[in-house]
Amino acid sequence: xxxxxxxxxxxxxxxxxxxxxxxxxxxxxxxxxxxxxxxxxxxxxxxxxxxxxxxxxxxxxxxxxxxxxxxxxxxxxxxxxxxxxxxxxxxxxxxxxxxxxxxxxxxxxxxxxxxxxxxxxxxxxxxxxxxxxxxxxxxxxxxxxxxxxxxxxxxxxxxxxxxxxxxxxxxxxxxxxxxxxxxxxxxxxxxxxxxxxxxxxxxxxxxxxxxxxxxxxxxxxxxxxxxxxxxxxxxxxxxxxxxxxxxxxxxxxxxxxxxxxxxxxxxxxxxxxxxxxxxxxxxxxxxxxxxxxxxxxxxxxxxxxx
Amino acid sequence: xxxxxxxxxxxxxxxxxxxxxxxxxxxxxxxxxxxxxxxxxxxxxxxxxxxxxxxxxxxxxxxxxxxxxxxxxxxxxxxxxxxxxxxxxxxxxxxxxxxxxxxxxxxxxxxxxxxxxxxxxxxxxxxxxxxxxxxxxxxxxxxxxxxxxxxxxxxxxxxxxxxxxxxxxxxxxxxxxxxxxxxxxxxxxxxxxxxxxxxxxxxxxxxxxxxxxxxxxxxxxxxxxxxxxxxxxxxxxxxxxxxxxxxxxxxxxxxxxxxxxxxxxxxxxxxxxxxxxxxxxxxxxxxxxxxxxxxxxxxxxxxxxxxxxxxxxxxxx
Amino acid sequence: xxxxxxxxxxxxxxxxxxxxxxxxxxxxxxxxxxxxxxxxxxxxxxxxxxxxxxxxxxxxxxxxxxxxxxxxxxxxxxxxxxxxxxxxxxxxxxxxxxxxxxxxxxxxxxxxxxxxxxxxxxxxxxxxxxxxxxxxxxxxxxxxxxxxxxxxxxxxxxxxxxxxxxxxxxxxxxxxxxxxxxxxxxxxxxxxxxxxxxxxxxxxxxxxxxxxxxxxxxxxxxxxxxxxxxxxxxxxxxxxxxxxxxxxxxxxxxxxxxxxxxxxxxxxxxxxxxxxxxxxxxxxxxxxxxxxxxxxxxxxxxxxxxxxxxxxxxxxxxxxxxxxxxxxxx
Lengths: 306, 317, 330
Hints:
The complex is a heterotrimer of chains A (306), B (317) and C (330).
Chain A: H1 12-32, H2 35-52, H3 54-57, H4 95-131, H5 133-148, H6 151-162, H7 166-193, H8 196-203, H9 208-244, H10 256-263, H11 271-305
Chain B: E1 6-17, E2 26-38, E3 43-47, H1 54-61, E4 69-74, E5 77-78, H2 84-89, E6 90-93, H3 107-118, H4 123-136, H5 153-165, E7 171-175, H6 183-200, E8 203-208, H7 211-217, E9 220-225, E10 228-234, H8 235-240, H9 245-253, H10 293-297, E11 303-305, E12 308-310
Parallel strand pairs in B: 3-8, 3-9, 6-7, 7-8
Antiparallel strand pairs in B: 1-2, 1-4, 4-5, 9-10, 10-12, 11-12
Helix pairs in contact in B: 3-4, 3-5, 4-5, 5-6
Chain C: E1 4-15, E2 18-30, E3 35-39, H1 46-54, E4 61-64, E5 67-70, E6 73-74, H2 80-86, E7 91-94, H3 98-101, H4 108-120, H5 124-137, H6 143-146, H7 156-168, E8 174-178, H8 186-203, E9 206-211, H9 214-220, E10 223-228, E11 231-237, H10 238-243, H11 248-255, H12 319-322
């Protein structure tokens, strides 16, 4: 009557390792179907390495001003020097070094903003989806109000109230991004709430808190993770925009958006001061979005199957 | 006759349905006055088609939702919704083994959950109990560390049964436990259920639409149609000589795996009526070949006719 | 000549863990006006082989066949365009879930009309007339008014009737019904089966009924093909199959039917159907078979027609001697 196979029983630890390996293999199979996603992943990995070891990669200090090398063009142009590969800005700082250190800020902004938005959004969404009724209505209408504002404008207003600065900009962006997480979490909670395993846990006597955190939440995380990667790039973009408008990171911080803002007046004279920070933002955001698409492909069909 | 564990009288469950802005809210009588007893070591089967209220009955008995009317007693005392006492007596196994196990929890976690929530056993004692139960339902010990998606349907149903057994209940509500399983696996699970009943003296409430399974496993049968019990009695009596025209039609509509005996089917015309808008009088009258004016006017009560109880004005010979 | 003649059909799916063989060298032949039933448990490849014929499998599937002939034409060598002319007209198919098989955005009348327009090029007035005829044919009361109904306004049984009407629109020579009654209630199932059989007789079309329900097989089919783990393990006329199954799997499956049980315990088949990673060598049923011999693990051979084409080295010769023991070792 029991299901018997002739193979010797593997130990628990072996099984655990096998399980993890097989899940990883399956994940990688679906992820690697999407070539763009793999490229995105490698670009991001490279960025992370560069950001962590910035002092090793950067040829100069990011805030060091070379008074005799103002607005040097990139090395391959006439008048350029191999000492400043991507040229220098108006006060003689090496652009390459600033970009490399800027990667730290961008990734930091992404992590903090997404972390804040994720934490707040998922908890609120969980509460709204689980309790339904008036609680749900109040929360969702509030989120609708936030979503009704153009996101950058709202962030701008909030920074204006809180005062300019990188930290306040990050808080503002997190609040703007939060409703997306709330809606997504709520939708998956509603979806899971009537599944039989949730009813089983209720029959077993689980309290609402237990049900929300232990039973339902782990099953809602797939789409939220995907949304988180996509928000990561939004956060970087918004922070850059705030920086450009002078409301985010303040000079001389080598943040990409702030760099763009400082270079505004030289756009016509020295193309490289605006192009390279812009390209850095473009490549990072593109890489993250590509990887997010791949993640969605890899995680979503899997969720449908279970 | 042994003392009943669970006794339900006149249990009903009504749902209010909003019919849109301009319509009056409707009342759906998902279950309308069902009475039954569950005895240790015995199986009561509840059969009927979709919308007959059999799953609602299962939810009431396992206290997933409270009844709108009627009484539910455990050991002669009224049941309290959500009490630990009730949970320790009645547990439920669902139809779909792919939906009833949390996909993100390991088998061990799933099995120990009822213990963690309802007892003060320590981790070691819980694990021991989980392993005992796994052995009892025919799972291997190394399955403890695995996730549900690594199992086949039959094994998942074993896990679900094991979870239901963790609190040592005396009653199992089985809501279509083998409907989602393949034939060869279905036999394994039915045998397991029979073994468990013999060993532990469990009372089963077996919800099913498959009459051949019911005939095999049940001691008593309750046939339901549109929220009402239309016939109830001993399995042998009821299958031998159905009194209610609906029971007779249901029996003859069930395909028999015997091509040599092509029986003449009683064809029911028409569809199942919507529970939102049930027919007047006897709910079965629009599809019944024996319906008279009386059937269209008033609803018959469940009364003893011969050895079974039938709710029909014109019970069959 | 058989209407449908498929020889040595195999279907492989590309998955994360490599190729998965869903259908393994299956032959299917169906005569004109015959009811063939393909019976098997989940994972037996019974639906996949028919979906392969219809060209409805996803791109991850690799289909190989020696022959795929329908009505004398080789479907395997046809261009997609030519094939589309046959599929949906001469061969049509109905599925398990009638509600999800119909498009919820369009009325029943529109959806039937679409088939008529695509395959028969009828004009609007004839389409309407023919749609009403078809709905009437499948026993839908008041067909004129039902034309403007949306699928969600009809019950499951009614939707399945609409699906059958759509399938019949092109006067098919072959109708494939994939678990047509599994999602329906027992009394409705009886109605739909009755309808399918009477239509089959009336139109003299061939019907391939894919099911897992032995009761449905016994009551409707003329010839039965049993599949296990992607292979055809036995094929017999329905009476003989139920009387004297030759393959141990068929025999054990029949013994596991609750209605055939004698005691409280059912004779069950131990173990589960092999999956992608634990496919045995030799006979695929060997690990679960109670008559297994050492040579079963090495290879397996096909028996002649007298022994039900059983894919088994040691087929059960007559019904009396061995069936009672089949699968009994629980």
